[in-house]
Design brief:
Oligomer: single chain
Strand content: under 5%
Number of domains: 1
Structural class: mainly alpha
Distance between the termini: 88 Å
Number of helices: 9
Largest sheet: 2 strands, parallel
Bound molecules: iron/sulfur cluster
Shape: elongated
Number of strands: 4
Length: 249
């Protein structure tokens, strides 16, 4: 979706695939192949960065370990039927420790992309990360600005989240592979928690709609019964009056 919008804005774009965060390697390659197919159809080039999961493990994973053990996204917020359900997936996953882990992850990849942009002679950089409502968009914005400033190129940030549904629809129509977790090993469990949350939320919304329908139906029946009772009372009254009139004759 960002690529379409950037092309429409007149940018000459090239995609840099910087994803040492993705595990396992088969998933990394699957997403890359999918991107390359899409890019070929759309007419833009894709360059692959170095796949260095060991570097990601060294720089980002230590922050992630703490979150894995303690994150409310995977623990108390999700445990037990009595716990209030978060308002959204973003709220479910909005944990300060996860935020810092993702910040480190964005930083690593955006720095790599910005350096590659300089080497390739590009004058600016945007990021597809800004399309997902499950990411920390404010942090992405900060890290994009930082990476671009350090590299001496322009940062092109736009909040693409309003296009997420459209992007989802198009990818479904094209039969594209749709990942069900962000990328790192920690996000596998978060993806599961997200799906469980969505399922539970839909169930509760369905139950609320059913309760509303039942309440409307009960009110409708009550109203009809009152109308019927009133009509019957009126009919009885008319019958009594009629009988009295006939008696007087
Ligand atoms: S959830 Fe996504 S952005 Fe956050 S650390 Fe994992 S791979 Fe990186």
């Amino acid at each position: 979706m960002p690529t379409r919008l950037l092309l429409e804005e007149g940018h000459d774009i090239t995609v840099f695939y910087a994803n040492s965060n993705i595990a396992p390697r088969a998933e990394y390659e699957r997403r890359l192949v999918e991107l390359e197919k899409y890019a070929e159809a759309q007419g833009f080039a894709v360059f692959e960065g170095e796949y260095e999961p060991a570097a990601w493990e060294r720089v980002v994973a230590p922050i992630g370990e703490a979150i894995k053990d303690l994150s409310p996204a995977l623990g108390s917020k999700h445990a037990g039927d009595d716990a209030p359900l978060p308002e959204s997936v973003a709220e479910l996953l909005d944990d300060e420790r996860r935020r810092e882990r993702c910040r480190a992850c964005y930083r690593m990849r955006l720095e790599e992309a910005a350096n590659a942009a300089v080497e390739g002679g590009f004058d600016g950089m945007a990021t597809t990360l800004a399309v997902s409502p499950y990411q920390f968009t404010d942090v992405i914005h900060e890290e994009l600005e930082r990476a671009c400033a350090d590299a001496g190129i322009a940062a092109h940030f736009e909040d693409y989240r309003p296009y997420y549904d459209e992007a989802t629809r198009i990818s479904r129509e094209l039969g594209m592979y749709r990942q069900n977790y962000c990328g790192c090993r920690f996000s596998v469990a978060e993806g599961e928690a997200t799906r469980a949350y969505i399922k539970q939320k839909r169930k509760l919304e369905k139950a609320a709609r059913r309760a509303e329908r039942e309440s409307e139906e009960a009110a409708r029946k009550e109203h009809a019964a009152q109308k019927r009772a009133y009509a019957e009372a009126q009919a009885r009254k008319r019958a009594v009056l009629k009988a009295l009139r006939e008696k007087k004759k």
